Amino acid sequence: MYKLIINHLTREKRFALLDGNAPIKLFIDQPKHHSSVGDIYLGRVEKVLPGMNAAFVDIGEGKNGYLHRDKLVAFVQRKEENLSQQITSFVHQGEKLLVQVEKDAAGTKGPRLTNIIELTGDHLIYMPEGKYIAISKKIADSRIRKKIRLFGLQLKEEQEGLIFRTSSEAESDSVIADELSNLRAEYEKILQKARSMKKPGKVLEQNAFLDELLREIKKLDSGEILTDDLSLKNLLQKHTEIPIKLYTGKENIFSAYKLDYEIEKALKRVVWLNNGAYLIFDEAEALTIIDVNTGKFSGKNDLQETVVKTNEWAAAEAARQIRLRDIAGMILIDFIDMKDDQDRKHIMDIIEAELKKDDRRTNVIGFTPLGILQLTRKKTKQAMSEALTVKCPSCDGTGRILSPETLVFRLERELWEHRGGDAEAVLIEASEDVERIFSGADKVHKKRIEEMLQLEVIFHVEKSALPYYEIRRFGNAADLMIGAKINF
């Protein structure tokens, strides 16, 4: 049974979808990392780059957005005759455009934009200038698809575009026609607001959290929905026949259902499986690598059984973690090597079946000659690790820091630069491990360096989880000893 847990009382909004007791989706919305995907702006073209067939557009948010030629209405409306023409034929510097965010800004890159506006309804996605009809791939029956396409051609104007969502299959023509009429009216309001604006800025802001939450609720035929916010409960109840329960416990609703633990788990590099095997997640900017290890699992019969069984469990858990962590872009899964092509196909089938539950578009490409499974997942917003964490100031996000030995050798080199100076001593603040390694057994290394440099080395040792040192000052040994006692 599905269970939807919604934490809405505080500034950070969260919901989790559980299948039984296992979370299969986590959605977290922080004010700082609020997604702009779907937001509509009045933009002004700042620069047109023919070499990239793209333009950079000022939307009033600091970073200019990236707009490709193929995402321009002018190109789409005359696509048949203009495939070879560059972007300069369709847009010019200083031109004002209505644009929508397709992908959030990330790092130094601004948001990715489209000039082909999409307005989402319950059964339709309406594109005022889309000029094509598409039907959800989940509607498999060719006769039904043909019927829907013919109905769409009757509904839409020539320049308009329609995408029929999966739910449209079970809905009446009149309901869909009414929804299209409402979406057209909504677009007219957007145009009116844009016409009244004198400079680039936001025309329509989507409530990403509420939109995503409503999408999940509308997909539920049965199950349990709980929220800690009475006003949200009343709002959501209008969209579902499933009774929504109000949680009134003192403990945070996520803590009560052990979901805070699941978030912590989804941020860890290592994920253990129930059989003793484990996965290692390494997320880089360009791709994510998932490494599968047998760990403590040894199987009951032969090695091949151990390998295949571990890979089966790993495939299911990797797919679940990809959804939970909201990992996107290129993903490589390094399964334990399988010699038999049938075994590889079996593991691919498991991954594909699990990813069919995912709303985000995924593409399982296949195994490389080295036995690494390649797949891609559409990226629209930050992964959970990007949204909830920052780079470690010590390791700068690498996950590794300099060893105490390396720092000791660096300190030695730095002190050598002061040989032959006028100072009698040097005061160094350092962690315990740096002082111990620098000094050596019975202080033999420290004495040798002092003799060679003709410089007394005075340490003030501080407890620290990280190895470090800092040369505080040079001077008279007695003064430095007194100063060390006063200042530390």
What topology does this entry show?
Layout: E1 2-7, E2 13-19, E3 22-29, E4 40-49, E5 54-58, E6 65-68, H1 73-77, H2 79-82, E7 96-103, E8 112-114, E9 119-120, E10 124-127, E11 133-135, H3 142-155, E12 161-164, H4 173-196, E13 201-204, H5 208-219, E14 224-227, H6 230-237, E15 244-246, H7 253-256, H8 259-266, E16 270-272, E17 278-283, E18 287-293, H9 303-325, E19 329-334, H10 341-355, E20 362-367, E21 372-377, H11 384-388, H12 404-416, E22 425-431, H13 432-439, H14 444-453, E23 456-462, E24 469-475, H15 477-487
Parallel strand pairs: 1-14, 6-8, 11-12, 14-15, 18-19, 22-23
Antiparallel strand pairs: 1-2, 2-3, 4-5, 4-7, 4-13, 5-6, 7-8, 9-10, 10-12, 16-17, 17-18, 19-21, 20-21, 22-24
Helix pairs in contact: 9-10, 12-13
What's a quick, concise take on this entry?
This protein has 488 residues and is α+β, with helices and mostly antiparallel strands. It is 34% helix and 27% strand.
Give structural notes.
- Helices cover 34% and strands 27% of the residues.
- The strands form five sheets. A six-stranded mixed sheet has the order 16-17-18-19-21-20, with helices on one face. Strands 3-2-1-14-15 form a five-stranded mixed sheet, with helices on both faces.
- Helix 9 runs parallel beside helix 10 and helix 12 crosses helix 13.
- Strand 17 and strand 18 form a beta hairpin.
- It is of the alpha+beta class.
- The chain has four domains: 83 residues, ATPase, nucleotide binding domain (Nucleotidyltransferase, domain 5, 2-Layer Sandwich); 161 residues, no CATH class; 122 residues, no CATH class; 84 residues, Ribonuclease E, catalytic domain (Hypothetical Protein Ychn, Chain: A).
- The model has no long low-confidence stretch (mean pLDDT 89).
- It is built from 15 helices and 24 strands.
